[in-house]
Amino acid sequence: MKIAIAGASGYTGIELLRILSSYEDIEINQISSRRYSGKRLKDVFPFFSGRFSDLVFQEDIDIQSSDFFFLCLPHEPSVELVKRVYESGKKVVDLSAAYRIKDTKAYTEFYGFEHKYPELLFKAVYGLPELFRDDIKNASVVANPGCYPTASILGLYPAVKEGVIKGEIVINALSGISGAGREPKQQFHYPEAFGDSYPYKPLMHRHIPEMENVLKNVSGSDIKVRFTPHIIPVSRGMIATITFRTDLSKDQIVELYRLEYRYEPFIRFLTEPPHTKYVSGSNFCDIFVDKDERTGLAVVITAIDNLGKGASSQAIQNFNIMTGREETYNLLTGIVYP
Amino acid sequence: MKIAIAGASGYTGIELLRILSSYEDIEINQISSRRYSGKRLKDVFPFFSGRFSDLVFQEDIDIQSSDFFFLCLPHEPSVELVKRVYESGKKVVDLSAAYRIKDTKAYTEFYGFEHKYPELLFKAVYGLPELFRDDIKNASVVANPGCYPTASILGLYPAVKEGVIKGEIVINALSGISGAGREPKQQFHYPEAFGDSYPYKPLMHRHIPEMENVLKNVSGSDIKVRFTPHIIPVSRGMIATITFRTDLSKDQIVELYRLEYRYEPFIRFLTEPPHTKYVSGSNFCDIFVDKDERTGLAVVITAIDNLGKGASSQAIQNFNIMTGREETYNLLTGIVYP
Amino acid sequence: MKIAIAGASGYTGIELLRILSSYEDIEINQISSRRYSGKRLKDVFPFFSGRFSDLVFQEDIDIQSSDFFFLCLPHEPSVELVKRVYESGKKVVDLSAAYRIKDTKAYTEFYGFEHKYPELLFKAVYGLPELFRDDIKNASVVANPGCYPTASILGLYPAVKEGVIKGEIVINALSGISGAGREPKQQFHYPEAFGDSYPYKPLMHRHIPEMENVLKNVSGSDIKVRFTPHIIPVSRGMIATITFRTDLSKDQIVELYRLEYRYEPFIRFLTEPPHTKYVSGSNFCDIFVDKDERTGLAVVITAIDNLGKGASSQAIQNFNIMTGREETYNLLTGIVYP
Amino acid sequence: MKIAIAGASGYTGIELLRILSSYEDIEINQISSRRYSGKRLKDVFPFFSGRFSDLVFQEDIDIQSSDFFFLCLPHEPSVELVKRVYESGKKVVDLSAAYRIKDTKAYTEFYGFEHKYPELLFKAVYGLPELFRDDIKNASVVANPGCYPTASILGLYPAVKEGVIKGEIVINALSGISGAGREPKQQFHYPEAFGDSYPYKPLMHRHIPEMENVLKNVSGSDIKVRFTPHIIPVSRGMIATITFRTDLSKDQIVELYRLEYRYEPFIRFLTEPPHTKYVSGSNFCDIFVDKDERTGLAVVITAIDNLGKGASSQAIQNFNIMTGREETYNLLTGIVYP
């Protein structure tokens, strides 16, 4: 099987390459990067020393030459390239937001472009295996979830599905800076981000429609979330601290979550709140569930690696499912600690 | 004026010494530390080079020898020492929680000891000048607020006072590790805390009764907060992201806050969410107020330095008020950036 | 093959467990830790989710029950336990300094204890495969090198072996804090180590006799190094910047190094100075060689992970050699970046 | 006195503004920044709340309107602007390298431009008060030293002046990333610099001619240094670890340094190696001197804040001297710790 990675020089592309380098039965035969076109992978990233380190970045991906595609592109180019892969009859996991939301208005409002292929939006499967595993198996186009939606939806799904939430949902999330991509920016220049932490876009974050859209699809009812993301000064790591009112007791809510996820290989229940570092470099989502009886509010806390379960290793999980592999194949290695 | 600092070798003690070293008209004549008794300040902390660097740590503080006392002790020893200072007729700012809560049961339940001087609890003034400035002026005993309560109460006070909050209050807070004190612990050993972030004690944090007690005192009604603190891997810095339902419009809620705090020298309103680094080493509390009309929830975000406005510089602010100085004296210096 | 790890709850023990969890044909049947005796691995380290996570820490290791031993103990207990494993006819990799130096006086002077088994010192092989691969193959006792000696000796070996160094050798090294172990200490308490960097023990560092002893053994002549270690505020990572006078030209010195290490699977030559992060979590040693013609001094810079090639993955490399496996088995996985 | 700061939006400019905001008897009446022209200081840097926060960035500085000038510009524009200030008869501290070296060839070779005003080079005084205090007093143009040269020259001056160094000088230096300026760059993008450390430009660093030129001027003989700078992942801080052969005993070399610097208000001798954090935000240079009798090499270690004594607070020290103030005026405040 020949694999292509478009936009391979960003953080999600590098992470895909790292994980795929342990697969014996595949060949990565194309990597693309506008910025590094013509350069070898190992000359751009000297730490690369696996099987693919002699690969040369191409300007673009040729659809004829590969069998499976990972797209790590900006949203708009992804709209087009996914369409072209789809028409070729091949399979693609798209790590952008281009096909995540079944509502074209969201693209106009939150992403600033008009989505040209609304019919393909409805053929694309949202690549969160814990919710849509069966659809992913047969999908040609998998829209890999965003990191904030992954952490938030996994923390809400059992409660939303069972309809046990009363009133509003408040999500406060923390994210490492790699989630903002590899492009240097003033606010992420090391001396400024060093030792700093702050909320950003507290009122209208792009990830809200993705979350609400998926939660509505699995519950059949409108769900509204109040979502405030915060930057924390680490490279990788994401926490979502979720609060909602419920009539379930503490034991009932804990049991609900454990039951729903009892066969999930990448969800771990902890008896203490989760740490970003415990999932760093992994595909795990650690979950803590509790209820504050004083206020009647349940507290669900999830932790993922924004580049792992929040992006690239989840893309590999989808790849494993789409290609008939064991879902956990190559994804259960331990984390580097400390 | 002769000043004593008990427990001067902890982080709040060092910060007091730093700020007080710029006062021309005082003498610090006693510093105590069990651990460093007999050693000079500058031998323990080689970076100290101000007027007080030749001071020698004593085992204990002698009440006769000084005129004003700052206590940076654990809660229980503080209960006793505050009492003794009070009986001598002198003034004290206590940075522990020993006299913060007007409810002895809270001490039994949350702090694990029985408070022996309930009558003195009611004479102690809660040292948040933005709420209790007039009481502080004439107080003998000022209970300096905790860092989480400072960030949370300043973010809630205008709304609570006006009674515009409907339903529960959700507070998610981030804190730098210096807030946990100077004692080495496994979870704060550098290799483990490096690059990590996590919530802790999400269900029952000691600071909740302090917050609820003060908010009840200023509003006359029971207030319940859902409070989840998170560790972030920095030395200093604290964010409180507060969410509550209100019928006020965005403009009304913003106006309410600006009006309430319009004369406050240490409260700055920002049009973007605040950064921990913008207040680091300062006595400022930066505030951002907004409303999410989609969900009907107001969002108030505050940022302080947990050792500054959350502890030592707020203690100095109280000291300035208690000794008839300009309240802002020596507290408006710029921050070291980046 | 049944494997025991003594002192498994320290950083080198955890790293061994992580790497060994990918071996299909071994069983770890004993892990010991005084501190956590009786507790399960995954209850102490919640991020552990591999095959060994249900293992229970024992107070001590039983020599009869296992076939191969990794010792991550303090120096003195290791002196004894290595002796006992040796007498049982089994094999051991000792990660302490207990058997690294062929000179009992060094133990008295630098480590503060008298070495009881000088004859066993001479049977132990210094576990730096790039220098002593053939001896390691047949060794029963392998003394795994320290992190500073690994980075320094690999950076000096080709030049020392060929005798091209004139005069003194100056080594300035940087180390992440995990190299100091898992025990919490004041200077490594997060708020204090955060944002700080400093040299330590500049005059007499324990690792000097280890370096000089090995370099003398391979060159036959006395070698003196001036070694200054520095703490940098990261968890993992080590740089050794080495300077010495030589008559070789730049091209000659580069060629000398490349030739010597041309078949080494874990040594990578870079054309730019190495980064600690490029080798983090790996067994690689990245090397940069150059000469400053203005001063006549060669500059050799090496980078390793102090817990990887500087400790645990090097121990696994030795294990692979001692047990007849491919030397690189399981040690060529890519690094997690960024 | 009216003061202008050209290039005030960089890190050295911000630091100058912070320190100068405590001066009662000056007015900053011009700040320039190409990037932020037309914007208010406090709108660009929301943490600014001192006297100057309403200042508006200008495109350029007008020489007629101010009495004293600080230039925080790139080297080439500084060449011109210094010249123009000089011709107006006013005083200037130039923080660029434009007038540091008395050798025009160095500019062609290391800085890539031809210096147009060689005669003015010889009128400019090198602004290291510990060496050139008397010249600075009467200078019109002071070339403020670079951070690496400050740390290195202060660590070498007593030994160089007395001629006690035999053979080559090896300097290994560590620098926080703020030393590279405020412009975002790929290698200083937070996720990449986070947790990383590495040497850079080990063979030919721009600061070498500056160091050698000054050392030659004070000693009369050619001095060659082998200088290797390293990036450490902090915002501020610089260490220079200096090694050289000498016949002086340990006591003699220590005494030589203490004697030379005995009246220096900003030089502190430590009995343990210095920490970057002990001088952060200050104008101090901490020094540690020792000798390794085994190798015959002296070890001198200095620590400064690269933006403090390595740039802006040293510029203020020069300003104090040039304007007849107490040299230490406003520069002895304590550091924010931890």
Automatic annotation (TrEMBL), chains A, B, C, D:
Keywords: Amino-acid biosynthesis, Arginine biosynthesis, Cytoplasm, NADP, Oxidoreductase. Its EC number is 1.2.1.38. Residues 2-139 form the Semialdehyde dehydrogenase NAD-binding domain. It is found in: Cytoplasm. One of its GO terms (molecular function) is NADP+ binding. Pfam families: Semialdhyde_dh, Semialdhyde_dhC_1. GO terms for biological process: L-arginine biosynthetic process. SUPFAM superfamilies: Glyceraldehyde-3-phosphate dehydrogenase-like, C-terminal domain, NAD(P)-binding Rossmann-fold domains. It comes from the Bacteria. It catalyses: N-acetyl-L-glutamate 5-semialdehyde + phosphate + NADP(+) = N-acetyl-L-glutamyl 5-phosphate + NADPH + H(+). Pathway: Amino-acid biosynthesis; L-arginine biosynthesis; N(2)-acetyl-L-ornithine from L-glutamate: step 3/4. InterPro entries: AGPR, AGPR_AS, AGPR_dimerisation_dom, AGPR_type-1, NAD(P)-bd_dom_sf, Semialdehyde_DH_NAD-bd. Its main location: cytoplasm. Catalyzes the NADPH-dependent reduction of N-acetyl-5-glutamyl phosphate to yield N-acetyl-L-glutamate 5-semialdehyde. PANTHER family: N-ACETYL-GAMMA-GLUTAMYL-PHOSPHATE REDUCTASE, CHLOROPLASTIC-RELATED, N-ACETYL-GAMMA-GLUTAMYL-PHOSPHATE REDUCTASE, CHLOROPLASTIC-RELATED-RELATED. Belongs to the NAGSA dehydrogenase family. Type 1 subfamily. This is N-acetyl-gamma-glutamyl-phosphate reductase.
